[in-house]
């Protein structure tokens, strides 16, 4: 059975088999634009400077589709040291972010 989202589009219900298919989300923390000669000279321990700061939002993609933005966080407790993303802006999948 399908539900209807606010835009009127039909979407699978939570118990539909399609909703259990795993997807891969890519989190983009920044980009670098080195010259090829600088890229070829990289060695262990080299530092590649990104165009973002640690406190800047990260972007979440499924394929090339931007689906959300968020903040990087480090987890505590049993998952201490594990990175996570706290979502601050989620795309309206019908209209984009």
Could you give the topology of this structure?
Layout: E1 2-4, E2 10-12, E3 26-28, H1 36-40, E4 58-62, E5 65-74, E6 83-90
Antiparallel strand pairs: 1-2, 3-4, 4-5, 5-6
Category from helices, strands and their pairing? mainly beta
Total individual domains: 1
**Beta-strand level of the residues, as a percent range?**
25-35%
Kindly state the mean pLDDT as a whole number?
88
What does this structure look like?
- The chain is mainly beta.
- It has one domain: Surface presentation of antigens (SPOA).
- The protein has one helix and six strands, in the order E-E-E-H-E-E-E.
- The strands form two sheets. The protein has a four-stranded antiparallel beta sheet, with no helix packed on it. The chain has a two-stranded antiparallel ribbon with strand order 1-2.
- A hairpin with a 2-residue loop joins strand 4 and strand 5 (65-74).
- The protein starts with a strand and ends in a 7-residue tail after the last strand.
- The model has no long low-confidence stretch (mean pLDDT 88).
Short key terms for the protein model shown above:
two-stranded antiparallel sheet; extended; single chain; Surface presentation of antigens (SPOA); four-stranded antiparallel β-sheet; 97 residues; mainly beta; 6 strands; 33% strand
């Amino acid at each position: 059975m399908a539900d209807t989202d606010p835009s009127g589009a039909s979407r699978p219900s939570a118990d539909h088999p399609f909703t259990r298919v795993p997807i891969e989300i890519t989190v983009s923390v920044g980009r670098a634009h080195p010259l090829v000669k600088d890229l070829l000279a990289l060695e262990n321990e080299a530092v590649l400077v990104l165009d973002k700061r640690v406190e800047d939002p990260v972007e979440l993609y499924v394929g090339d589709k931007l689906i959300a933005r968020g903040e990087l966080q480090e987890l505590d407790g049993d998952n201490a040291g594990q990175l996570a993303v706290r979502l601050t802006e989620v795309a309206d999948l019908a209209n984009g972010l």
